[in-house]
Structures are given as C-alpha cells and as structure tokens.
C-alpha cells in the first residue's frame, strides 16, 4: 500500500509585502498540488497586478524538497536573480505543494544581481515564515457494497475513520464510493466486516498520491 505520507501544505492563500530600496515587493503563496494549478495561480496573480514591472514565480509539486516537478521564471529580471532563488527558498521551506509569485514595482533604485537574489530569496522566506499550514494526508478510495439493513451502522463508522462519501448508489444493494486516509483503510475494512457480519464487499481503488 505504500507509506502514509503526511506533510505540511499551505492552508490557503497568503500574502506579505515589503519595501526594499524603494521597490515594492508583494509575495503571494498558494497551495498548488499540480503544475497546472500552479500555472493557473501565477496567471491569476499576473491579472491582479498587470501594471507591475515583474511577476516572478516558482513552484514545487509534491512533498517538501521534492524536485521531480518544479517550475520558475525570472519574468524579465536578470537571468538567475529571481526564479531560481525563489525556488531554492521553497525547496528549503519545509512545505510541499506550494507556489509563490513575487510581484515587483520598481522604485527607481537598481539592486544589482546580488541584491536581487537576496531580495527574492528573502521575500519567499518571509512569506513562508508566516504561512498558515495544514497537514496533507494521503487518501485512498474504496468501493463498498452492502445490504440495506446495514446502512445505518456503516454510516456511523464513516466519521470515526475520516471517510468521506464521494457517491452513493441504491439498487439491489447499496454502493458507496468513499475516500479516507490511507492509514485508516485496514481498520475501516475490519470495522465494516464486524458491523455487517461479513455481508459487505470492499474494493480498494488506486490510492491517490
């Protein structure tokens, strides 16, 4: 079944702002489980600040520090001074499934390459320090088929095992599609068998990563 991987992800959209040598830097961080969602988030921030000089960005898909799916852009800043330092800060930030956009309004003072690297790194670090997070729990999906007589008892079990009903179907028997933490699957299956005296079919669908 694979281990039940739990790690921190952003709890929601988070924004911090700071001024560095008269330039205004606005850092927006979001939970983005996929590359598509990360790119859509970047596009939304660009639309929000269309008059900014730069909307530089970076994202990490997967667990904290995972480099299998990452992306970044300097968005017109000198090569390597924005996207790469932002990505490095995200990879060391202890949070997974995360994207950051740093919006810059130029204030008239050139920061130089080293200054830009420090600014973009610092912006992401500052945002991550105050970022509200929650635990990401790996989920599995189950297909459950049972007799009508057992509906009430089985429904009582759902909350105890953090199981969410995705769909239900009432025919000759009752069919549920459920999603619950991978760590609860074995205990939930046993509880179902006990509750229904074995009159239940439980099928594990592909676990979600």
TrEMBL record:
Highest taxon listed in the record's lineage: Bacteria
Annotated Impact N-terminal domain residues: 22-128
Positions of the UPF0029 domain: 144-199
Coiled-coil features, chain-numbered ranges: none
InterPro entries in the record: EFG_III/V, Impact, Impact_N, Impact_N_sf, Impact_YigZ-like, Ribosomal_Su5_D2-typ_SF, UPF0029_Impact_C, UPF0029_Impact_CS
UniProt xrefs under PANTHER family: IMPACT FAMILY MEMBER YIGZ (PTHR16301:SF20), IMPACT-RELATED (PTHR16301)
Family membership noted in the UniProt record: Belongs to the IMPACT family.
Name of this chain's protein: YigZ family protein
Lineage: Bacteria, Pseudomonadati, Myxococcota, Myxococcia, Myxococcales
């Amino acid at each position: 079944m694979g281990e039940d991987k739990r790690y921190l992800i952003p709890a929601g959209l988070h924004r911090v702002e700071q001024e560095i040598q008269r330039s205004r830097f606005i850092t927006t961080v979001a939970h983005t489980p996929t590359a598509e969602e990360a790119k859509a988030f970047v596009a939304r921030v660009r639309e929000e600040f269309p008059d900014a000089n730069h909307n530089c960005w970076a994202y990490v898909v997967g667990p904290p520090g995972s480099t299998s799916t990452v992306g970044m852009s300097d968005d017109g800043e000198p090569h390597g001074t924005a996207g790469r330092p932002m990505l490095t800060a995200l990879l060391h930030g202890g949070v997974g499934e995360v994207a950051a956009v740093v919006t810059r309004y130029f204030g008239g003072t050139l920061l130089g390459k080293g200054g830009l690297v420090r600014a973009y790194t610092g912006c992401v670090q500052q945002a991550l320090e105050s970022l509200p997070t929650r635990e990401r729990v790996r989920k599995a999906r189950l297909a459950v088929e049972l007799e009508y007589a057992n509906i009430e008892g089985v429904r009582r079990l759902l909350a105890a095992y953090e199981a969410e009903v995705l769909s239900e179907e009432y025919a000759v028997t009752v069919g549920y599609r459920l999603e619950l933490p991978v760590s609860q699957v074995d205990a939930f299956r046993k509880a179902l068998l006990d509750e229904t005296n074995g009159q239940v079919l439980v099928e594990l669908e592909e676990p979600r990563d």
